[in-house]
Every structure is written in C-alpha cells, then in structure tokens.
Amino acid sequence: MWLESISLKNFRNYSELSAEFSNGLNVFLGQNAQGKTNFLEAIYFLALTRSHRTRSDKELINFQASELRVAGELKRSSGKIPLEIILSDKGRITKVNYLKQTKLSDYIGHMTVVLFAPEDLQLVKGAPSLRRKFLDIDLGQIKPVYLSDLSNYNHVLKQRNAYLKSTETIDKNYLAVIDEQLADYGSRVIEHRSQFIQDLEKNADKHHHTISNQLENLKITYLSSIKFQDRNTIKQNFLEQLAKSFNRDRLKKNTGVGPHRDDLAFFINDMNATFGSQGQQRSLILSLKLAEIELIKTATGDYPILLLDDVMSELDNHRQLRLLEGIKENIQTFITTTSLDHLYQFPDNLKIFTIEQGKLKSQ
C-alpha cells in the first residue's frame, strides 16, 4: 500500500497544496512551526478521519475558511482507491471511490497507517485514556467490526449515564434493558481487545528482545474492569459486575465498570515498565510500532503507511538502526525532521521535500 498523491484545501496552515510521493521514503525537512507535522497530520486524517493531535475538528480548518478538504490517491494490491474527506460546521463527508460512506467503519481500513510521534513516549507513563486510544486506533484499522461494536457500546453507555443523572428513582426493569445492551456490545469490545493484545504482545516481545540485544522480554497485560477467565463468560460477568456496581453507579451517576475503564500495563523482565529507564521505555514503544506494522500486514494483506513525526532525533543510533531495519523496502514511510544529520543509509526511492511557512517544495 502506498499514497501516490494528496491534495489539501484549508487544512491547518495550508490554504491549497498538492503533492506526489515516492513509494519508499519521503522526508519533510524544515524548521519548527513551518507545517511539517501539519502535513503528516493531514495524511493521518485522510486514513482515520480524525487528528492525532486534537479532538476539536474546528482546529483543523484554516482560520480564514469554513470547510476543509483532504483527498488522496491510494494504491493497494487490489488497485487504486481515491479517498476524500470534507469537513465543515455541518459535519463530515467521507468518500471512497467518489462514493459517500454512511458509516465510519465503511471508510476506515481502506488506508492504514502507523504513527510514531514524540507524544507516543507517554504511552507507558501517561493516562489510561492514551492506551485506550492506542487500542481503538490500531484495532479499528484491522477490524472494522470493532469500530461498529465500540460505537454501539459508547452510544448505550451515554444513554445509561444520562438516565442515571436524570432521575432519583431508578426503574430497575428499564435499567436491566440498558444493561443487557451494554453487556452485549461491551463483551464484544473486550473480546476484540483481548485477542488483539495477545497478538500484539507476541510480535512486540520478539522485536523488544532483538532491540535489547536479547536481554529483555516484554509482556502486555490487559487490565479490564470486567474479570473473566473464559471469553464465553464475559457477558455474564459483565452483567454481574454491573449489578454489584449498582449502588456506586446510582450515587456517582455514571457507570463504573466496562471497556471505557480498561487499561494496559507493560512489563520488562516482569518489572512494570513505568519504573524502567527512558531508554527501555523508548525501546518498548519502538517494539509496539514494529509489531503494529506486522499485525496490519497479516490482517489486511498490505503493509501500512508509516508516519514518523520528528522521532529520529529522540532515538539513539542503536534504536534508529533497529527502526530502519524494521522498515521493509515495501513500506512507504514519511519522516519529518529539522535536519538530515541523524539520517543515514538513504534508499534509492527517496524523495525530499522542504516546508517553509506552509509552502511545500520537492528537491
């Protein structure tokens, strides 16, 4: 899979721009605050219909405009796929092969990406919401049905919380209907996540073992508020946990158990990675990214597009080498950087762009 071209209109500081890319390595060179990360963000947005930097869609639209458009020509093993997103105050329009898509799960998955940005280094020590976001983005690209189940779960969760807040007298029969739906969708989300984490751990441990010169092993633990031993019992356990949490939920007026409370824990040689060195944590994140690439390739048949946002300077020579070795020749890669000094072993299919004040030039 590779992105042949992209066109932007009113995206961040780009009023209008078009570019064609190499199917290998594409380097965006420029000083800070010139628009390098914005450009990578546009590619990410084209794949996932959302930004990795902000929850506010309005921030993506150029301050002088009322709507933005991002379009690209994607090439996969199955053929070319035109993609397009139009975002305005009225909402979002997504198109595949020039046809509007009614559901998010119908759009996401056509173009898969793996992003490695400096903020990913917070994945180990940051808030649980960061790890849930990591799960949702990666799993959503691999299994579109996951996005559908998650969306349905979040919809019912919102209903349940609204009901808890709106009344002092709880109708247990009505709540039981909501709980049944919540446990149904929630158990599917948990099952998707549980399997994904098993696959991720297997692949990431292999990479981490190599990066650490065979000195360290990596384990990933799924911390679910719904305890289960067997996948067939997840829904029943969910309903039992909801019943136990009833008094707490009525008092707090929100739902205390479920996938929205999930978390992950990382262990290096059985030690919680939050207590590891910065170098160990960077190796861990690098291992996760390399594992993501393999999982997406296995699930979709195509390698994802790799986005590296100013991370080469964050890695020492050893980890840079492991990253470059992990990037297969047929993985299209986009790198933003302020200097080429720390990049070496350039491939033949290289294209360098300079970015200055929202203007893109090909060297």
Automatic annotation (TrEMBL):
Sequence positions that bind ATP: G30, Q31, N32, A33, Q34, G35, K36, T37
UniProtKB keywords: ATP-binding, Cytoplasm, DNA damage, DNA repair, DNA replication, DNA-binding, Nucleotide-binding, SOS response
Domain of life the protein comes from: Bacteria
Primary location group: cytoplasm
SUPFAM superfamilies: P-loop containing nucleoside triphosphate hydrolases
Domain RecF/RecN/SMC N-terminal: 3-359
A Pfam short name: SMC_N
Subcellular localization(s) per the UniProt record: Cytoplasm
Assigned protein family: Belongs to the RecF family.
HAMAP family: RecF
Function: The RecF protein is involved in DNA metabolism; it is required for DNA replication and normal SOS inducibility. RecF binds preferentially to single-stranded, linear DNA. It also seems to bind ATP.
Protein's UniProt name: DNA replication and repair protein RecF
Native species: Streptococcus dentapri
